[in-house]
Design brief:
Elements lengths: L1 H35 L1 H12 E6 L6 E2 L5 E13 L6 H19 L3 H13 L5 E7 L1 H8 L7 H5 L1 E10 L7 H4 L1 E4 L5 E4 H5 L1 H4 L4 E9 L2 E4 L13 E4 L3 H18 L3 E8 L5 E9 L5 E2 L4 H4 L9 H10 L8 E3 L4 E4 L2 E4 L8 E3 H6 L3 H12 L3 H10 L30 H5 L9 H12 L4 E2 L4 E6 L2 E5 L4 E3 L5 H17 L13 E10 L8 E11 L6 E8 L9 H4 L1 H14 L8 H19 L15 H10 L3 E5 L4 E4 L12 E6 L1
Parallel strand pairs: 2-10, 25-27
Antiparallel strand pairs: 1-8, 2-3, 3-4, 3-5, 6-7, 8-9, 10-19, 11-12, 11-24, 12-13, 14-17, 15-16, 18-21, 19-20, 22-23, 23-24, 26-27
Length: 666
């Protein structure tokens, strides 16, 4: 019995000793965690509950050439409630008043809001949604409500801001204004001006500390950001809102009447290359039209008769033929290597001069002139086209420009019909903008300039960078040739294929085009027409060049360039030169700045406290108001376009640096 008791005692001692050793080890480990590794584990805990989130900077605004807003960032606010933040005393004191205020603003019964607030308090809800999609003024109003006015810590109000990109003039020129966003596959989509100039528009993101409060829900720790975001720079585009509006609606009208598939129009300032208007419209399934593709920059197809201008210029430059040389149209049908070339007029035009053949857009005349002039040396003709710059991209800032295709004699695809077919614009491809650039060079007395979509980058009223004229080719051909083709293109409108467009009130010059395009690669139903008109106005002293292309018009209603695209061209010229006197839009922004500078001086003379008080901007242009307020240290958000009709901060109140002011424009 004694032996058994002794064995039991040993076992007890052994267990006790093991427990003692384990206790020592646990104590050592705890001390190690607390004293040696404490900082590390505290940091891990902190990372799990508190994070530094990026705070997106406001993108800069995109303006038209006259200061109208084309794209701007508008803040939308979401307000939530941390029901555990207020003390019981403050909650009981202000909850009913908060419910009444929410009822007045949002329409739900006060009892509903009171119950929701109580329920959140009882369930310890720290992220109750109050309202979302609020404007800045609505957000300020909500923050002033009972309880919320105590702030984030005492009142429990949580505010979240989301920047939304808006286009005050609607969807006009939407594809050219563009956007920058992440695609479905994670790729960075950079479209139009917004995409091309993203590095200027984006600004620098800030940082905000947020705390994890529930199931992957985070709330700001305070209303103050750790790092304030820096707003992006503003872009002043070349777009003229007035001309853009004319071009857009003229194109829509024709597309709707002819039930066309899609079309585009570009208006370019002759001397500078500034694109004053660009509209790209495609047909939707419901028959309406919207901007989905930038056809002017992206779509490269056979130009048809508008290519007869480069062909004629090459012939005249090489002295291959004189404009007075007479050609037999052979009944409107001639054959080259078993392939027919036909005129649009049945029976042809008899015997006519080269100039008259161009005016009437005779395929048979131009093909004969090109083939006879270059059949022994096609490389000479093609080299002229290359020298014009038509075999390479323009290098415009907007991404997605298609490559032109000009057949070269050394190419494996070159055949016996390549040369004659090029004579009337087939077997090659160009984008509308590439074609227009050549026509603009002729209008500009031979100087070819690159099309530009942006003229300035600004930080409010301060000029950061200016984009001036960019010369691609100082002289595409001799002045003698330019004078000849200008006279012929003026006659196209006066007595040629564009005679229906002639008006004694304003002059135009250009070339009609009607191309048969094989969209599907087959025959029959795959064949459609592309109707175009390219030229400039006024004819004697060109200020603007313009191209209009309409694809797949309803054949039963018409498909010739003069009938389908020509009226759009005429409408634009007519509205610019009869409704509104011509002005040099390039200087408009500079004038606004001078006016603005004198405005500053006037304000300073009248009151010494201007830099300490919010000025009255009612009635000022949006561009002037933004510059004035930005110079005074305020953050400016703009809604609408035109002149200021309302401002969120009252005139005369003290300015707080980096405070936001909302301007509503008429």
């Amino acid at each position: 019995m004694g032996v058994e008791d002794k064995k039991t005692s040993y076992r007890i001692y052994l267990v006790a000793f093991m427990i003692f050793v384990m206790a020592i080890l646990v104590s050592v480990k705890l001390m190690n965690i607390q004293l040696v590794q404490g900082d590390h584990y505290r940091e891990l805990a902190q990372k799990g509950t508190v994070k530094n989130f990026p705070l997106k900077a406001n993108r800069g605004n995109v303006y038209s050439s006259d200061g109208s807003l084309l794209a701007t960032s508008i803040p939308h606010y979401t307000v939530r409630f941390d029901a555990m933040a207020p003390t019981k005393e403050n909650f009981d004191k202000y909850a009913e008043g908060l419910a009444d205020s929410l009822n007045v603003m949002f329409g739900q019964p006060a009892e509903y809001y009171h119950n929701e607030l109580r329920k959140a308090r009882n369930t310890k809800n720290r992220y109750l949604l109050i309202a979302k999609g609020l404007s800045y003024t609505e957000y300020l109003r909500v923050k002033s409500f009972p309880l919320f006015s105590l702030g984030a810590f005492k009142g429990g109000v949580i505010t979240e801001q989301k920047i939304v990109r808006e286009h005050p003039i609607g969807r006009i020129a939407e594809r050219t204004i563009g956007y920058e966003r992440i695609g479905h596959s994670g790729e960075n989509l950079e479209v139009g001006i917004e995409g091309a100039f993203a590095k200027y528009l984006n600004g620098k993101d800030g940082r905000r500390m947020m705390q994890k409060i529930a199931k992957n829900q985070w709330k700001p720790i305070s209303d103050v950001d750790e790092v304030e975001p820096v707003d992006g720079l503003d872009i002043v585009s070349t777009i003229d809102v007035y001309i853009q509006d004319i071009a857009h609606h003229a194109l829509v009208k024709q597309l709707e009447y002819y039930e066309a598939d899609h079309g585009c129009v570009v208006v370019m300032e002759t001397k500078t290359g500034y694109v004053r208007a660009i509209s790209n419209l495609g047909r939707n399934t419901d028959g309406t039209y919207s901007e989905t593709v930038n056809y002017a920059v992206w779509e490269s197809q056979e130009p048809g008769s508008t290519f007869k201008l480069p062909a004629l210029v090459a012939l005249l430059e090489d002295k291959k033929v004189d404009t007075s040389k007479v050609y037999d149209t052979h009944g409107g049908d001639i054959t080259y290597f078993g392939r027919h070339v036909r005129d649009s007029k049945k029976g042809g035009y008899g015997k006519i001069s080269l100039a008259r053949g161009f005016e009437l857009s005779s395929n048979t005349v131009l093909v004969q002139a090109v083939y006879e002039g270059y059949k022994d040396n096609p490389k000479q003709f093609v080299q002229h086209i290359n020298d014009f710059g038509l075999n390479r991209k323009l290098g415009v800032t907007i991404k997605g420009e298609a490559s032109p295709r000009i057949p070269q004699p050394e190419d494996p695809t070159w055949s016996r019909i390549s040369l004659p077919w090029m004579g009337f614009g087939y077997g090659l491809s160009l984008t509308p903008l590439q074609t227009l650039t050549f026509y603009n060079a002729i209008a500009n007395n031979g100087e070819m300039v690159r099309p530009l979509f942006v003229q300035e980058i600004r930080e409010r009223d301060r000029l950061i960078k200016k984009f001036g004229k960019e010369v691609i080719n100082p002289k595409v051909c001799s002045q003698e040739t330019i004078n000849q083709v200008k006279a012929i293109m003026a006659n196209v409108v006066k007595k040629g294929t564009g005679s229906k467009l002639y008006s004694p009130n304003f002059s135009m010059a250009g070339k009609t085009g009607t191309a048969q395009v094989n969209y599907g690669g087959g025959k029959g139903d795959d064949m459609y027409y592309s109707s175009s008109f390219a030229g400039y106005f006024p004819a004697d002293n060109p200020e603007y060049s313009c191209i209009v292309i309409i694809h797949k018009p309803h054949v039963g209603k018409g498909y010739y360039g003069a009938d389908v695209s020509g009226p759009v061209f005429k409408r634009i010229a007519q509205k610019i030169y009869t409704d509104v006197p011509s002005t040099n839009e390039v200087k408009k922004l500079d004038k606004a700045i001078k006016k603005q500078e004198s405005l500053y001086a006037s304000y300073y003379d009248k009151q010494n406290k201007l830099k300490d008080a919010v000025p009255n901007t009612i009635g000022m242009s949006g561009m002037d108001a933004v510059a004035l307020l930005g110079n005074m240290g305020l953050k400016v958000q703009v809604i609408g376009m035109g002149k200021v009709k309302k401002q969120s901060l009252a005139p005369g109140q003290a300015i707080v640096k980096d405070q936001t002011i909302i301007l509503e424009l008429s």
